[in-house]
Give the backbone structure.
Amino acid sequence: MSDLCGKVALVTGASRGIGREIALTLSSLGATVVINYSGSKERAQEVLDTIKANEKEAAIYQCNVSDPDAVQAMMQYVVDTYGKIDILVNNAGITKDNLLMKMSEDEFNQVMDVNLKGTFHTCKSVIRQMIRQRSGRIVNMASVVGIIGNAGQVNYSASKAGIIGLTKSLAREVASRNITVNAVAPGFIKTDMTSELPTKVVDEMLNAIPMKRQGMPQDIANAVSFLVSEEAGYITGQVLEVNGGMNM
Ligand code: NAP
């Protein structure tokens, strides 16, 4: 993967799981990384400490991505502090699973607000800066279930399908400005998000994966690192599926 020295990256939801691994990987490639989180400062601080122990530049920033004003302030902080923003990874996401007939409107709205609208807010607040810079890389975290659906996740699947549509439309809007916008669609990855699923569900999921194993956060971080690299400069509006063959 190419060197990201001199690049400034913001990773949302970087205090744990996939986002944490993305932050550590981009940092290991040389990028200055802003670690966004919404709740636990301790976990974000641990990611920061890990990066600082390797003598790399990084910062933590608390912000709920579903709050447009807070997102705008976060973007301003990044630009004021580092003078630019080269890479935005929209990774923050939540689930509120339920069968449609039992799902409340609130469960539907909460997932939309964080996953889809959060991605809208961050993209909107970064895009003028990237256009001014005449360069930028945006990677949005979708999901295999945004492509193939999943019982019990109409809210989450709809938010992830929405992210794919947003990604392709924005990619078309800014392609001529040397800004790429892509999505990564993970399959079944070992994180807190998947740690409390009943054994029966886990067994069914594993059975549906040709590689017969869960993915690791590093598998996703590797895909993101490629999409933000110089080498991926002619790739935009794509969905890179990282799922052990779950959907082909
Ligand atoms: P996770 O372990 O639950 O971590 C979620 C991260 O998002 C945390 O850092 C959390 O920060 C942050 N976050 C949650 N709500 C936020 C908000 N409103 N504003 C800012 N940050 C917020 O999840 P994960 O498994 O790593 O998933 C990361 C992304 O990959 C998500 O978009 C998820 O939908 C997607 N994905 C995951 C899988 C999988 O199998 N794990 C599969 C497909 C797609 P706090 O702890 O501070 O709240």
Notes: Residues 105-133 form the longest helix (29 residues). The chain has a mean pLDDT of 97. Residues 12-19, 36-40, 43, 64-66, 91-94, 114, 141, 143, 186, 188-189, 191-194 surround NAP (CB under 6 Å).
